[in-house]
Structures are given as C-alpha cells and as structure tokens.
Specification:
mainly alpha; elongated; single chain; 28 helices
C-alpha cells in the first residue's frame, strides 16, 4: 500500500541540553583548560548586566578571540615540546570562546559575526591539538544554533548556517567526533553536543541532511555507535539523528543500504526480541531504530536486503514473543512488504499468517508500555495495511489459497471482523464529513483537497483498504465468502454499492508518485473489483 514516511522529526521527547544525564554536566575542559562553568556563567551574567550586546561588543569579543588565537599559535610554534610554555595561552583562548557564548542572546548579530570573517577562525579550532579547545567550539556552535535561540530569527539563522556549511563545519565536526573518547565525561558530552549541532543545522537548512552524509563519514560513526551493545544517552541520540537523516532522503536510504545498514538495524532491534527496554529513554531509542528500519526498506534494493537478511523471520519472532517491540515489528513488515511480492511470499512461507491474523482478530498483547490511547487503533490500521499488501503481492498459487482460506476458517470469523471494522471506520468518516459540513455552514471555507485529506486522516484510508480486501475476497468467486459478505452488509443496512462507492473514490484519487505505469496497474485492479461487485 502507499506508505507514509515514518515521522521522526516532531518528537515530544526531543531533548534539550538541560535534559543531559548528570555525567554530561562535568566542567567543560579538563587539565590545562579546566574552569568552573557555574562560576563562569555567573561572571557572564554580571558582564551581561554591565555591557549591552551590540555590534561594538561583538567586535570587541571577536578582536579578543583573534588576539588569543594568534598568541596561542605563536606559543605552540615557538615551544612545540614544552606544553607548560603554551598552557596559559590555551586557558586564555578557552576563556575567550566561553565569552562568545553570550552571542546566543543576540542572534540578530549573526550576520555581523559572519561579515567580520570570524567563522573560519572558530571552525579552525575544531582541529586544535588540544581536544578541550575543540570541545569548547562544539559547545559554542550548539549554543549559537539552538532552536530556542533561532526561533523567530529565520534570516540571521540562515546566514549563520550557510556560512558554517560553506566553511566546512560538517566535515570538521565529524572529523572531531571520530577522535572523541566516550570514556571521558567531557568528551562524551561533546559527542552529544556535536549530534545536537548537526540536528540544529538540519532544522535551519534541510539540505544538510544529505550534505552531511555525502561529505563526511557520519553514517559510519552512527552505525558503529548503534552496534554498541550497552545503552547510553548518546546511543539513543545517534538513533534519533539517523532516523532524521533517513526520513526524507532516498539518497541517504540507498547509501546506508549499501553500507550494510539493513543488517545493522536488524541486529540492533534483535536485542529486544525477547526483552523489553529498561527505561523510557531506551524505549525511545528502540522506536527510533524501527523508524530507521522502516525508512531503510522503502527503496526496492533495501527490501531485497531485508528479505535476504531474514528480516521477515525476525519480525515474526518479535511478534510471537509479544514484547514491547510487537507493534513496531508489524510496522516494519508492512513497509517491507509494500509493493514487494518476494517479502509477501516469504511471510506466507515462514508461517506468518497465523501470527498476523491473531492481531487482525484483536488478540493484541497488553503491557505497561502500550498505554498510548491510539496504540490498539494504530495496530489495527497497520495490520489492515499489511493484509492488503499480502493480497496485492500474492496474486496466484498455493500461497494465495492459504491467504484466502484464513477468511473461510472458523465459520468466516475473519470476514465478520472485516465487516465490523468496515462499519466502524465508515461511521468515523461519516462523522468527520458532518463536522466539515458544519464548519462550512459556519462560513469556514474548505477546498476539496483539504476535505479529502481530513477524511483520510479520520480513517478513510483504512476504510479504503478494507474495501480493497473485500474486493479481493469477492473476486475469489468463493460462494460461501460472497454470501457471508452480502449477509453481513445487509445486517448493517449496507450494500455492495456502498463498498463500490468507497472503491471508486479510491480509484479516482490514486496518485502517480510511483510513475504512470504503476498508477494504471493500481487503477485497473480497483476497477476490476468495482466491476465484479
């Protein structure tokens, strides 16, 4: 079925710096560069009250930074083997970088910061021999690009981000990321801040999502992090960033597939086939990993990799174990089987029908973590889509017979359930129609496209899929199934004409996203159902 892209961006759990684990709040910079940040912040606040943040202040800050940078370079060149001779200049450079954080309070000055040509100097420090200085820069970049700071400052944000990207911020951030050791608390925090900065850059300039994968080895770093068995905050954030990078980019999906990404994702979720995540953070990471998997299996070649790596079998095992990943496994199967018959055939061959139809009949495991109001409804809609994909992918032979026989067994109970769902979704769509009509009565104009989209959101898409499944059952020409469908529709004061109307609207709104040939194939199939009914 036509698949939506997993939503990974607008997350209620998106973390701010204040949400960092305690281990991340260590003083920024150790050894020669160590300072008490709380004291520094107090000093900054007192300075803030004494000095207005304007262009004059900015120039003063920039000049001081350039001076300290020059002194540090000279000291290092003069005494390369005597760290004690350049330690003081390093501390002073650190302090000037800390002072620049005040600029986050005046994003309207970002274009001036760029025109003063300071960005190359700041970014050059990401390659500084002293990791603490590079960590200072990462923290500064995260502060300057923080979404709360950039809110309502679209133009200054664009100017800053464009300048950062032009001056190789992505390459430098990722190079620095590779040299950070997460056994050190400061460097562990810097890893988090690096990922946060990349996310902030994507927020302002979505093209960064493909640029960063094209120009750097970020994918390689993220895959290594996700392979890590132990859970930590950075592994969670890595999973979230990966999901963002894959969400709207076919190029990224294909590239990660070529890097063995499907296998890595399957191994990562396999850790939860017979156990639940221990914390909410770990649970969110597992959701992110499944988001990544669903995005990954959208290109055809990655569906093939998924089947070859026994992804279908793994998802069925996860469903059978009835742990918290149950619903996510159904979602991943639905994405993998959409418009890909080999996945549908494998699903039937490895006895997935029994597991899928138990869910279809409402036998959904209940546990603490699925308290979400829409959880059961989401699963219902997903399993309907999966069954529709099965019918679409298996058009003939013994597998088709096995699929159809599920609707005959136990005195047609699956048809009873299908019609029950049909009625429920039809009622919901009707209620939405009435609500929209009332809005128009109240002089709120709603065009046809918006009206159709709102009806889709209220359940019309699922209703259309149920009608498609009914069409497949009717076209099997099984007398018992046909009689049962007609009997149940009549009981609900409905007729085949109602189902045909739903199918006709579906037919008329099939898009050509997958090309004109695919559109014609889909429309021909639906027309066949309408004619048969």
């Amino acid at each position: 079925m036509d698949m939506e892209v997993p939503d990974t961006r607008d997350r209620s759990f998106k973390r701010k710096r204040d949400d960092l684990p305690d281990s991340y709040s260590a003083s920024n910079g150790s050894g020669s560069g160590g300072v008490d940040l709380s004291l520094l912040e107090a000093v900054e606040r007192s300075q803030g009250t004494a000095e207005v943040l304007d262009l004059k202040t900015l120039k003063k800050l920039v000049l001081a930074l350039e001076r300290r940078l020059k002194e540090n370079i000279e000291a290092r060149l003069k005494y390369p083997d005597q760290p004690e001779r350049f330690a003081d200049s390093e501390i002073e450079l650190h302090e000037e970088l800390q002072k620049l954080k005040v600029l986050a309070g005046g994003p309207e000055l970002y274009p001036d910061l760029v025109s003063l040509n300071t960005i190359p100097s700041i970014l050059g420090l990401l390659s500084h021999e002293n990791t603490d200085i590079a960590i200072d820069v990462v923290q500064l970049l995260q502060d300057l690009t923080d979404e709360d700071v950039l809110e309502d400052n679209d133009e200054p944000a664009r100017v800053l981000v464009d300048a950062l990207v032009e001056n190789n911020v992505l390459e430098l951030l990722v190079q620095n990321l590779h040299r950070l050791s997460e056994s050190d608390p400061d460097e562990m925090a810097a890893v988090y801040n690096t990922l946060a900065t990349i996310e902030n850059l994507i927020e302002v300039k979505p093209a960064v999502a493909e640029l960063v994968c094209e120009k750097t080895k970020l994918f390689r770093w993220l895959l290594t992090k996700i392979r890590q068995k132990e859970f930590d905050g950075n592994k969670q954030y890595a999973s979230e960033i990966l999901a963002i990078l894959l969400q709207n980019s076919k190029a990224n999906q294909k590239k990660l597939g070529q890097m063995n990404g499907v296998d890595v994702m399957l191994q990562a979720v396999a850790m939860y086939k017979s156990k639940d995540p221990k914390t909410q953070d770990e649970e969110e990471m597992l959701e992110n990993l499944f988001d990544c998997l669903c995005c990954l299996v959208m290109p055809l070649e990655n569906k093939e990799r998924f089947v070859k790596a026994e992804g279908v079998e793994l998802m069925i095992i996860i469903m059978k174990q009835k742990k918290s990943a149950y619903g996510s496994a159904i979602r991943a199967l639905d994405f993998a089987m959409t418009k890909y018959p080999p996945a549908c055939e494998r699903f039937v061959d490895v006895l997935g029908l029994k597991t899928a139809f138990a869910t279809f009949m409402g036998k959904i495991p209940q546990y603490r973590k699925n308290k979400k109001e829409r959880y059961q409804e989401d699963l219902e809609e997903r399993i309907i889509s999966l069954i529709a994909s099965l019918f679409d992918g298996i058009s003939r032979g013994s597998r088709r017979d096995r699929l159809l026989s599920k609707f005959v067994e136990n005195e047609y109970e699956k048809i009873d359930r299908l019609v029950e769902l049909y009625v429920r979704y039809a009622d919901r769509v009707k209620a939405e129609m009435e609500r929209l009509n009332q809005l128009e009565f109240d002089d709120l104009e709603i065009d046809e496209d918006e009206r159709y989209n709102r009806r889709l959101e209220s359940g019309l898409y699922t209703l259309q899929l149920i009608a498609v499944i009914l069409g497949h059952l009717w076209c099997s020409e099984h007398a018992g199934m046909r009689a049962r469908i007609e009997q149940l529709l009549k009981l609900q004061k409905l007729s085949k004409e109602d189902v045909k109307d739903i199918l006709q609207e579906y037919h008329d709104n099939i898009g050509d996203l997958d090309g004109p040939d695919e559109k014609e194939r889909a429309q021909t199939k639906i027309q066949k159902f309408i004619s048969a009914l």
